[in-house]
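new request in #modeling-help
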Amino acid sequence: KQEVTQIPAALSVPEGENLVLNCSFTDSAIYNLQWFRQDPGKGLTSLLLIQSSQREQTSGRLNASLDKSSGRSTLYIAASQPGDSATYLCAVPSEKLVFGKGTKLTVNP
Amino acid sequence: NAGVMQNPRHLVRRRGQEARLRCSPMKGHSHVYWYRQLPEEGLKFMVYLQKENIIDESGMPKERFSAEFPKEGPSILRIQQVVRGDSAAYFCASSPLNRDSQSSYNSPLHFGNGTRLTVT
């Protein structure tokens, strides 16, 4: 049974810092891994999708890496801004999409 | 191109009442998924439907919960005789493809903004 864990549960940083969010999964036989952003009172916005054959995926200031063998993914956010404040969720498909509990990020001006 | 539409955004029900949550998928999408997010918890899969068919309801509680996706109209998640423990955010997602096929996992799901159910 696939389980997804995200560390830390919450993170508060000053504006401009580079930061890393971590995601680990127990079953390395995955098709891909997705990172989502959830704003308070809103739904989920897909940020990045990394295929199992890829090691990295980039979109603007976001960079996601995937290490299937160790069951880990990281989301790197460069030069963080207050608008990046949200909860970040990673998810892997395993019959259904299995989500971590998320990391709540606060970027302080 | 409108995204996944859910209504109502907020729903308050007293214990014992019924709650009906609606989800209209993105245009052209024929597959709908319902997820529940409890406070401080991750999203948990509930049910996967195609038009007029329930494909996978392994995440649905055995009693009081039901879901449908009729040929015409939105998908409905129905909770009968609600209890305080049903208070949560319920999210709907849609996809154009059957996610049992490997290639379909290459496209991300599109989520709605959710319905926040409060049972008093």
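bot summary: The first strand of chain A starts at residue 4 and ends at 7.
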